[in-house]
Design a protein that fits this description.
Strand content: 15-25%
Radius of gyration: 17 Å
Number of domains: 1
CATH architecture: Alpha-Beta Barrel
Strand order of the largest sheet: 1-2-3-4-5-6-7-8
Order of helices and strands: EHHEHEHEHEHEHEHEHH
Largest sheet: 8 strands, parallel
Bound molecules: zinc ion
Number of strands: 8
Shape: globular
Structural class: alpha/beta
């Protein structure tokens, strides 16, 4: 059995951004989950990106036994938020206060993104720090998004790595030194379908060197489809394709990849499955 550790079923649903999830959106989610189960992807972590999508994430987790939720504010969603993190953190704390019933297994996605412009570096850092501190206070891991901000992210994480921070650098597309550092801190890295895009030979080299005990599989669906399905929406059912890519890179049997990455996901998110 496989775990998709990073999926956006709420975005697979045919709804507009900022539109709350409603009953009529669920058939598309039902179909994606059914298809995943048929591919032996029996657990899905659905990731929040802002307050509305975090609430949608909780609704989806409460509806399906094999889905869990994360709540958080993505760095590119910080632009529209006030300078002070106060109100957002009040809302996130309210979700987390009932984390068992809300099936919340992590805070995320949070992080730094200096690729999408314009961005406010200080604001992103303030939101990132506040959410890491929320995760630490509730003994939850963090799901971290980093784009063109690796050094700033390492600098920020350094403070918390010694305080027992757990988490994953999701959709990991960074250089070897970043992988080495986050693994040394006991963090995980998330592997997605771009590992087999033709231009990404450098990524295959990096992943060859990352210990399997630090890798979890994720689709980021509906984004980042596998090469042979590019142009189409991604689905959690495609996790076995990513597992096969990693098996090829590491010259291991895919069953070994399946077993270890599932064990890693259970450990990272403290899953009761
Ligand atoms: Zn994502």
């Amino acid at each position: 059995m496989f775990v998709d550790t990073h999926c956006h079923l709420n975005i697979i649903a045919p709804k507009q951004p900022l539109e709350p999830l409603q009953e009529r959106h669920f058939p598309a989610i039902d179909a994606a989950i059914e298809e995943a189960r048929a591919a032996d992807v029996t657990t899905i972590i659905n990731v929040g990106t802002d307050l509305i999508e975090s609430e949608a994430s909780i609704m989806i987790a409460q509806r399906y036994p094999d889905v869990f939720a994360t709540v958080g504010v993505h760095p590119t969603d910080c632009n529209d938020l006030p300078k002070s993190t106060h109100d957002t953190m009040v809302a996130l704390r309210r979700f987390v206060a009932d984390k068992e019933r809300n099936k919340i297994v992590a805070i995320g996605e949070i992080g730094l993104d200096f690729y999408h412009k314009p961005y406010e570096e200080q604001k992103q850092k303030d939101y990132c720090r506040a959410q890491i501190e929320l995760a630490l206070a509730h003994n939850l891991p963090v799901v971290i998004h980093v784009r063109e901000a690796a050094d700033a992210m390492l600098e920020l994480l350094k403070e918390y790595a010694t305080q027992g921070l757990r988490g994953v650098l999701h959709c990991f597309q960074q250089q070897q030194y970043v992988a080495d550092q986050v693994c040394a801190w006991g963090l995980f890295v998330g592997l997605d379908a771009p590992i087999n895009y033709p231009k990404n030979a450098w990524m295959r080299d990096v992943f060859k060197n990352i210990p399997l005990e630090h890798i979890v599989l994720e689709t980021d669906a509906p984004f980042l489809p596998p090469q042979k399905l590019r142009g189409k929406p991604n689905r959690p059912a495609y996790i076995p394709l990513i597992a096969q890519e990693l098996a090829d890179i590491k010259e291991l049997d895919v069953a070994v990849i399946e077993e270890q990455t599932t064990a890693n996901a259970i450990k990272l998110f403290n899953l009761d499955i």
